[in-house]
Amino acid sequence: MGNIQSVCVYCGASVRADQIYKDAAVRMGEVLAKAGLQVIFGGGKLGLMGLVADNAMANGARVIGIIPKLLENFEGAHPSLSELHIVDTMHTRKKKMSELADAFIVLPGGFGTLDELFEILTWRQLQMHDKPVIIVNVNGYWDPLRKLIHNIIEQNFAPTGHALFATFVDSPDEVLDILENGIESRLKEPSVG
Ligand code: AMP
Questions:
Q1: What is the pLDDT of residues 63-85, one digit of tens each?
Q2: pLDDT at 189
Q3: For ligand 1, which residues put their CB under 6 angstroms from it?
């Protein structure tokens, strides 16, 4: 997998998400583990987060969770990770998750997931990293986000090239192709729009 050994997965903690999203989280865990990748995530046991972690570990991956003290009580830390770091603040959590990862994968999620995605995109915009960000558009969930990014660029709030900071794929299985071959394989297709 070239330079990529650890991937950070951002995704929803909701247990009420539709089964199609839960299935994608299960598959994402399997795919990453089978590719021999280490998984970094927010350390929670609930929703898609827990499913990614469970299924990555069940398929032999090393899974590292990073959870702030506050959320340990609120969301509940996953009880059986390869490593669990309990940190003081949300900010430390996000910084540590980003440092440990060579690439970022975004599954469907809510406000927390969007916060994490936009932080990593803005850090890329500021050239604080150049790690791939792959958005898994399960069931078209992220279509409105894709449109929003397109609009941001069309209205000149970001340069055209910034569309390439995030690569959209339709399923967890497509993530590996991007990790292996980079986004070059997709440059002929517009990444957003
Ligand atoms: P959500 O997508 O809202 O289900 O949240 C997914 C994960 O993002 C949860 O583990 C949250 O703890 C985390 N998260 C990260 N940043 C934030 C934030 N600013 N507000 C709320 N949750 C956040």
A1: 999 999 988 888 889 999 999 99
A2: 47
A3: 12-14, 42, 44, 49, 71, 75, 90, 109-113, 115-116
pLDDT tens digit sequence for 125-156: 999 999 999 999 999 999 999 999 999 999 99
Q: Among 84, 91, 113, 119, name the best residue to mutate to test ligand 1's pocket (greatest count of ligand atoms within 8 A of Cβ).
A: 113
Q: Which residue is associated with the tokens 């770091």?
A: 85
- DSSP notation for 63-74: EEEEEEHHHIII
CA distance 5 to 112: 25
pTM for the whole thing? 0.93
Pocket test for ligand 1, best of 115, 118, 120 (most atoms within 8 A of CB): 115
Domains of the chain: 6-185 (3.40.50.450)
Task: Count H helices and E strands in the chain, helices first.
Answer: 7, 7
